[in-house]
Design goal:
The chain is α+β, with helices and mostly antiparallel strands. It has helices spanning 134-140, 143-150, 154-161, 184-191, and strands spanning 22-27, 30-35, 47-53, 58-63, 69-75, 78-84, 89-95, 100-103, 109-113, 118-124, 132-133, 170-171. The longest helix is centred in the C-terminal third of the chain and has 8 residues, at 143-150.
Length: 210
């Protein structure tokens, strides 16, 4: 029991309809609902994201600086990919209904749906999880800093990142027109039956929140 909650107060809430709390909506099949202490003021160190995805859609690379995340698959199928900052390896975990993947606090990760009608529940050990999104890192880090730090051509970097929209949440964009989109599902099923390792890289740091 949390001491700052006055359980005798008529303002304390014990129920909430998560369907009425949309964090982000790409379209009718790809959206995220949120439940945190702002929606339900009696929560104690727990919150969730209710995630709906169609095949090939990705919850963009991001990390939660104040919470660990447990991803539970309700329906459909997805691959949860995590960058282990200690081994510098990408870990890929396919999950189907009843299966989970655990993301430690502060670890860079993303989820891609490998089937239509995918429904994921992301549970956090914080009453209001904070998030740092890859799109915000790429969009708001000054281009001259990126170019100087990583020996890049600044104009090429600007061109490569100019179409990125802040707070993407679910990609690709509806007007993206990716020719390779049709191959994503096959690649994940063939290459990641259990787990695999990819390139080594680490995220930059930029702060934002829900």
């Amino acid at each position: 029991m949390v001491s700052y909650i006055d359980y005798t107060s008529p303002s304390v809430q014990y129920t909430f309809d998560v369907n009425k709390s949309t964090l982000f909506k790409k379209d009718s099949r790809n959206y995220i609902n949120v439940l945190g202490i702002k929606q339900l003021n009696s929560l104690e160190n727990v919150s969730l994201l209710d995630i709906f995805l169609s095949a090939q859609n990705v919850v963009e690379p991001h990390y939660h600086q104040n919470a660990a995340e447990l991803v539970y698959c309700i329906s459909g199928a997805a691959v949860v990919s995590i960058l282990n900052p200690y081994t510098k390896q990408i870990l890929n975990y396919p999950i189907t209904p009843g299966q989970v993947a655990n993301v430690p606090q502060g670890w860079w990760h993303y989820e891609i749906a490998t089937a239509d009608h995918t429904h994921l529940l992301a549970i956090f050990d914080a009453s209001s999880p904070e998030v740092i999104l890859g799109s915000d890192i790429l969009k708001f880090t000054p281009s001259n800093i990126m170019a100087h730090t990583y020996c890049l051509d600044e104009n090429q970097w600007k061109k490569a990142t100019e179409s990125i929209k802040p707070s993407t949440y679910i990609g690709p964009y509806k007007n993206c027109g990716q020719e390779r989109a049709g191959n994503t599902k096959q690649t994940y099923h063939q290459n990641y039956p259990h787990q695999s390792y990819g390139q080594s890289y680490a995220p930059a740091g930029y702060y934002t929140g829900y």
